[in-house]
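Problem 12. The chain below contains 315 residues. Write out its predicted structure in token notation.
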Amino acid sequence: MTARSDRPRVLNLVTSESARFFREQRDELLVQGVESESVEVPQPTPGRRSPVDYVRFGRRALARASGEFDVVHANYGLTAPAAFAASRAAGNLPVVLSLWGSDLYGPASGLSRVCARFADATIVMSERMARDLDQSCFVIPHGIDTEKFYPREQGNARADVGWADDRRHVLFPYGTDRDVKDYPRARRVADRAAEMVDAPVELQTVTGVSHAGMNAYYNAADALLLTSKREGSPNAVKEALAADAPVVATDVGDVRERLEGVTPAFVGDDDAELTAALARILRSGERSNGRTVVASECSVETMAERIREVYRRVR
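Solution.
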């Protein structure tokens, strides 16, 4: 194996280079010897991209493609067509396609599925995504930084976030306006659970907090409640587990896999069952064993090791 083979160079195509989980992936791969450059889709209007933006993106990818790279990695389904074009321009480099969730289940689903058939390797974040894609692929969930998310003394965490210590706190780690997260269902479940608990219960929504700052909220909460309609591999669940927070969640993405062996925790789709499980956890006041379960499978280091192995296989 040559020195170049030991340090593969990757051309990353990505919708947003500033996306936190992409940065963590890229940075940890660099630690493990994978060098890369990134081309992102332009976004002249915040929150919106047009077909013209993707045309400009494809031109940028073609301009950067060259034989100095070993792999083209399309991060998100909509970047795959540009990845294939860049691959051909650089001498038919292998293409790895990562599907993040909304690209498999949202409006771009058809394009993502077609492109996955032609990629040299496809990475998905959960066994459910693998089943739905229905082809050979690698299941690699997004990793989390277990040094950033860790257990703390709950009273101190509550003091840091300004939550009263004489009540039960249920964390809904999103805003109320994201339809896919289904805040109305979270509100309904929390309110019904409160009727079964001999203490005041507050459903806490959190937005605008730094990523690192979320650790205090996971530790301050008596439980994390996730009521999403669909997910890929929700980082909030894994981060909460790393802080030993109990989790009650709908059966979306890889949540069932992540909660296997975790106690107390619950995953299901029935409101009555979600309510009963949440009430049990709030009454008990127990923390979970989530960190022990999640650390080995979902660390950012493990994620990067597995992606690096995919690069090795396709070359």
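Discussion. DSSP finds 15 helices and eleven strands in the chain. Students who got a different answer should revisit the alignment rule from Section 12.3.
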